[in-house]
Automatic annotation (TrEMBL):
It comes from Calcarius ornatus. InterPro entries: C-N_Hydrolase, C-N_Hydrolase_sf, Nit1/2_C-N_Hydrolase. It comes from the Eukaryota. The keyword Hydrolase applies. This is omega-amidase. Belongs to the carbon-nitrogen hydrolase superfamily. NIT1/NIT2 family. PROSITE patterns: CN_HYDROLASE. One of its GO terms (biological process) is glutamine metabolic process. GO terms for molecular function: omega-amidase activity. The gene is Nit2. It catalyses: 2-oxoglutaramate + H2O = 2-oxoglutarate + NH4(+); 2-oxosuccinamate + H2O = oxaloacetate + NH4(+).
Amino acid sequence: FRLALIQLHVSAVKSDNLQRACGLVREASAKGAKLVALPECFNSPYGTQYFKEYAEKIPGESTQKLSEVAKECSIYLIGGSIPEEDGGKLYNTCAVYGPDGALLAKHRKVHLFDINVPGKIQFKESETLSPGNSFSMFDTPYCKVGLGICYDMRFAEMAQIYSQKGCQLLIYPGAFNMTTGPAHWELLQRGRAVDNQLYVATVSPARDEKASYVAWGHSTVVNPWGEVIAKAGAEETVVYTDIDLKKLAEIRQQIPILSQKRCDLYGVEMKK
């Protein structure tokens, strides 16, 4: 099946972001994509100073448009993420809609991006956001898909759980920056893919050098052999790739690590 990643140029005008995102979703559908994914914070600039101003309930304005365009195009739409307000708390949340427009999954970013690289970048999502507390998976006629958002990708245990639960594709909307992007963006994706013998796709906003937080871009798809099979540059674009589940089955048969794990010695488990 064909997967499309929309590397959207995100502006400060929410209505423009929504309109352009929906237009690119329609374009991807017209080119045969069955799963379409948007980037992290696709409806607002990324930054702790923006989350409260742009936050919405789910359902709300942005997710309603996602539901409508998913139904119109009869696709599975991974809605990147938006700042979500619920019960007085803010979350970084990805909503997924099916071909009938129904909400299939809602993933709240589990691991908050609190880092300090002296002289390069300091960022603390926990100043405004609360963490999610659950794994998020959804079924399609093609395969089962697991969700994470950006910093979630650094935690190998999360990907292992998804693999154990039968996921063959992991999708991470994310916005790595100009420090962590060149260092770890591709490395982490290849690691998660080869460790778990599945496909990994990441969807970044396009790079905006004038933004307060400059995203690395380079939305990517990695196959279960650890090979990069599709990759964007820094500009706004749509990345297409065909996901070959026969290749995944072949790799798992050739190097059967999933059945060779020593569960008598170690294990990773989902607690809730």
